[in-house]
Amino acid sequence: MIPAAFDYVRADSVDNAIALLSEHGDDAKLIAGGHSLLPLMKLRLATPAVLVDVSRLDELSYVRDAGDHVAVGGLTRHHDVEHSDVLREHAPLLAYAAGHVGDPQVRHRGTIGGSLAHADPASDLPACVLALGGTIVARGSGGERTIAVDDFFEGFLESALASDEVITEVRIPKTNGAGFGFEKFNRRAQDWAIVGVAAVGGDRPGVALVNMGSTPVRAAAVEARLADGASPEAAAAVADEGTEPPSDLNASEEYRRHLARVLVQRALTSVAGGNGTGASR
Amino acid sequence: MTSELPTATVTVSIAVNGEPTEHTVEARTLLVQYLRESAGLTGTNIGCDTTSCGACTVLLDGESVKSCTVLAAQADGRAVTTIEGLADGDTLHPMQEAFREHHGLQCGYCTPGMVMAAVSLAAEHGTLSEAEVRTGLEGNLCRCTGYHNIVQAVVAGADAMASSRSSA
Predict the structure, then answer these.
(1) Which residue of B has its CA nearest to A107?
(2) ipTM
(3) Which of A217, B22, B80, B163 is the most buried (most CB within 10 A)?
């Protein structure tokens, strides 16, 4: 399968990328690793007229200890997130989950900024950033702004990014040794999660769900019960409350609701155990 | 359009198996097409064409990627290794030799991608346990389901690569 024809421009700086996006508006798309966009283009579900390649902007590939949070450059690949010592120490949920995105080949190409911008409810990292209460830094022709992750996902494959904005950084609050859990239920190793769960404990606990609606979603009812001191079992019982899971070839809506309850309980058990485990396969 | 955008073609230079190549191709050309149709190297197979099966795996600057999901333009200026680039003359690469020794194939269609993914895995991690191989090859499917011998081959190939590095 070959994508529809497009013009290809390689950006040599973030400002250059923003200028190109401003010039071409909705006709242009950014491409980084391309592992979300190219499959859509091959299916002609996306037909951008211009591709602006930002994958050579090495200055956006980094993981830094920034005091109370970890700063992850927008073009940091899943492979590099997985192997970052800083993230393994200060936000191990993200490093662990990044090691379960796709497969090694995918992790050599896909980037955290690309995954967030794609806003796919079935992707792993958006739910992790939700659970961790992260912040997205975006730069566009109007300058730089920060977007709380809770305000970022607006609809199916739709984010709060303007058409001329580039994700330059993702800020992840440090979890200060809190336990975490990550559960990914699928039939084949490399598949998207049929349902997934990202959970973290500590001072800023969070639980988020993969593939349980049109966007990555918080398990708000679970978080509320946990805040009231409920046990993992009691909290997990409301895991699907307020969600609108899809029915598709892999699972019915009802089955996804069941999976969410089971997987949230497993994730919360990992959180309570103080060290991360999970990722059922 | 007022700007000097390139037309829908791009000139791409890629060092393929150490040899410089340069071709003017449509911007939408996938790396696997470039390798097969422009560079004439048909050892890299197209399987699913959807980033799932791993048959098209090659090394991009030494790391495994699925060449059906990389634009040729994105590999411009970089180094690509395909299955044709592994052997040293008539001497098979240790991973190829291990696949031969352990009969790590049935129909052989997935083999070039399996070998390239295995080379990348072993280059990054050194020697590999059977469990590490099974996890590390999650991106490569063998529809003959000949995984048992493939896993044995990759464990042996990784050992051979590690010992050839330490004796080099």
Answers:
(1) B65
(2) 0.94
(3) B80
